[in-house]
Design goal:
With about 325 residues, this protein is an alpha/beta fold. It has 2 domains: about 230 residues, Alpha-Beta Complex (Spore Coat Polysaccharide Biosynthesis Protein SpsA, Chain A), CATH 3.90.550.10; about 70 residues. The protein is built from 10 helices and 9 strands. It has a 9-stranded mixed beta sheet with strand order 7-5-6-4-1-2-3-8-9, with helices on both faces.
Length: about 325
């Protein structure tokens, strides 16, 4: 297939990005203009409550390459990326956020790495202009911990701004996990990779959708999805507590029978009960987190629901692929 006939798919999730979308699309069109590929641009509206749908309609009216998926509600950034990849038809698919923190001008560099033979080209943030010190530190701590307890290496600073060839994108879309940590899933796939570093500018407009609570939930999903270390740590903690209890029992019996001391018991009993009770509750919480993930998986609900499709030729509401086998329907 000649380069002129190849198709490049762009997938850009958006959630309440009405103020940034026009500028983003302008920058994206400028980045795509010199490339020798046809392009489709898939915007995934993740249940926006602002004027995002109206802005997307205007973009679609002026650019025939634009296609849109509109979720029935907010299913989350990771599900929006998957929906766009499910719908993409290109020989290569580039995913990036629509807030201009993933510079579209970097796309030609991703394309060149793909042309040199890479199956997946991922980007690594060196710095983020508006990231707070606490966010940078907690992000580094998370990746440090995850890479020490997981068998799947994950590059610190890796972004959801990446290119995947057709084989990698299809393999990724076959992974239908409910609680998704896409950066880990992409690393788990293997394939030949290349990396490109960049400095993320400040958001063009609006505010980050990843507040602390959401970031914490995202981190828990990543840790639980790619490591059983918390369960093993709970078991080791249990062994440690059992060893401590055995030593204390020996001490108490020795003090009572040999030294004839009356063991007072109040303080030590209270401390023991509180400590053991806290460990038990912590252990139940960790086990419950894994059991909860199993519960969500076995329900088999769709990972997303599309209320509207525009620009795909059918323009019909459709339900996100959710078969247990991870299959999906793609038009020829």
């Amino acid at each position: 297939m000649t380069p002129e006939r190849r198709l490049l798919s762009i997938v850009a999730p958006c959630y309440n990005e009405a103020d940034a979308l026009t500028a983003f699309h302008t920058a994206l069109a400028a980045a795509l203009a010199p490339l020798p590929y046809a392009a489709e641009i898939i915007y995934v509206d993740d249940g926006s409550t602002d004027a995002t749908p109206q802005v997307l309609a205007a973009l679609r009216a002026r650019d025939a390459r634009v296609k849109t998926l509109v979720f029935s509600r907010n299913f989350g950034h990771q599900a929006a990326l998957l929906a766009g990849l499910d719908a993409a038809q290109g020989d290569a698919v580039v995913t990036l956020d629509s807030d201009l923190q993933h510079p579209p001008a970097l796309i030609p560099e991703l394309i060149r790495a793909w042309e040199r033979g890479a199956d997946i080209v991922y980007t690594i943030r060196r710095e983020t202009a508006d990231a707070s010190l606490s966010k940078r530190l907690t992000s580094r701590a998370f990746y440090w911990l995850l890479n020490r307890v997981s068998d799947t290496p994950i590059i610190p600073g890796a972004a959801d701004f990446r290119l995947m060839n057709r084989a990698a994108a299809d393999s990724f879309c076959s992974l239908r996990e409910t609680h998704r940590f896409n950066r880990g899933l992409v690393s788990w796939l293997g394939f030949r990779t290349a990396a490109i570093e960049f400095d993320a500018p400040a958001r063009f407009a609006g505010e980050s959708k990843y507040a602390f609570a959401r970031m914490l939930r995202f981190a828990v999903h990543g840790l639980v999805s790619f490591s059983v270390w918390p369960l093993r740590a709970t078991m080791l903690l249990g062994f440690g507590m059992a060893g401590f209890a055995a030593l204390y029992i020996i001490y108490a019996l020795f003090a009572f029978f040999v030294l004839a001391w009356t063991v007072p018991g109040w303080t030590s009993t209270l401390i023991s009960v509180l400590l053991i009770g806290g460990v038990q509750l912590l252990s139940l919480g960790i086990v419950g987190e894994y059991v909860g993930k199993i519960y969500e998986e076995v329900k088999g609900r769709p990972l997303y629901v599309v209320r509207e499709r525009h620009g795909f030729g059918d323009d019909q509401p459709s339900e996100g692929a959710s078969s247990a086998a991870g299959t999906r329907n793609r038009s020829a």
